[in-house]
């Protein structure tokens, strides 16, 4: 059983808000990122949060510590509840994201392995495992791991223990909610919901399949 997180990658504010409003009753969180924020502005985060749905900011933050802090502070001031960052810039950069999140009462998630076919190129050979250990050492709240590779999710779970796992790749990328729902804390679904003819019906169906 897992939560359902909508990856709201719509590229217009009005479309995004209409989808957010109709799907909100079936969601545990909405993840926003560059596609929506670059078209609608960061203020859309507060508008979505006002619907009563926690907003996760997927900016895959990956810079020097000071810049990471500046980015994360803006995200939380805008009303987001969580930030997603990369681990590869190093321990200090990751720590900056975790500290900003916790100062603002939010959470920080670390991308440890990606879901697309190319995600197996650089996140393999022990790299994802090292990122998981970094996430634990930095006090991060959880990781991102691929629903397209459930065995990898299980392997990474063994490293992070009780920290949360949010897992993308369900729907358009070919994975099913049932592949990972017992392994993860949240299933991330994007296009299969927000491009559906009836996004609310699709969200309802995915919510049921996550339980
Ligand atoms: O269901 P989709 O494929 O339409 O959308 C998946 C969402 O998850 C989309 O917002 C991606 O950017 C994101 N995502 C991945 O698809 N794969 C990853 O490995 C990581 C992410 C992600 O959310 O990273 C934080």
Describe the structure.
By secondary structure, the chain is an alpha/beta fold. Helix content is 46%, strand content 19%. The protein is built from eleven helices and eight strands. An eight-stranded parallel barrel has the order 1-2-3-4-5-6-7-8, surrounded by seven helices. Strand 3 (55-61), helix 4 and strand 4 form a beta-alpha-beta unit. It starts with a strand and ends with a helix. 6-(methoxycarbonyl)uridine 5'-(dihydrogen phosphate) (O7M) is lined by residues 7, 9, 33, 58, 60, 84, 111, 114-115, 119, 144, 146, 168-169, 171-173, 188-192.
Could you name the key traits of this structure?
single chain; 211 residues
Helix and strand run:
EHEHHEHEHEHHEHEHEHH
> What ranges have pLDDT less than 50 throughout 5 or more consecutive residues?
none
Number of strands: 8
- The coarse overall form would be globular
How much of the sequence lies in strands comes to 15-25%
